[in-house]
């Protein structure tokens, strides 16, 4: 069995590039974060994650304004 260390970004307010760099430095395997609301934001996050090599666990809310808009 392989256990991986992910960091939830619930309540984190630092910019994505800074956050991802810090998590890479401390040895995290990835992040758990909300699905960005817009297509452009989702693409930007995907690009940053790919560049950093970090994995992603999506948090998705099905209502209350927290669900992504269709492309």
Describe the structure.
- This protein is an alpha/beta fold and 71 residues long.
- The chain has one domain.
- The protein has two helices and three strands.
- It has a three-stranded parallel beta sheet, with helices on one face.
- The radius of gyration is 13 Å and the shape is globular.
- The N and C termini lie far apart (37 Å).
- The mean pLDDT is 88.
Number of strands: 3
Percentage of residues in DSSP E strands: 15-25%
Mean pLDDT: 88
Order of helices and strands: EHEHE
Radius of gyration: 13 Å
Report the sheet with the most strands, covering strand number, pairing sense and barrel closure: 3 strands, parallel
Number of individual domains: 1
Strand order of the largest sheet: 1-2-3
Q: Give the distance, in angstroms, between the N- and C-terminal Cα atoms.
A: 37 Å
Unreliable runs? none
Tell me the overall shape: globular
Helix content: 25-40%
What structural class should be given to the helix and strand makeup?
alpha/beta
| Helix run count | 2
Protein name: AP endonuclease, family 2
Organism: Klebsiella pneumoniae
GO molecular function, one term: endonuclease activity
Keywords: Endonuclease, Hydrolase, Nuclease
């Amino acid at each position: 069995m392989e256990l991986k260390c992910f960091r939830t970004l619930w309540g984190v307010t630092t910019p994505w590039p800074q956050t991802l760099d810090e998590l890479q430095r401390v040895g995290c395997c990835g992040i758990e974060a909300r699905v960005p609301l817009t297509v452009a934001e989702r693409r930007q996050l995907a690009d940053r994650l790919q560049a950093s090599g970090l994995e992603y666990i999506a948090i998705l809310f099905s209502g209350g304004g927290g669900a992504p808009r269709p492309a």
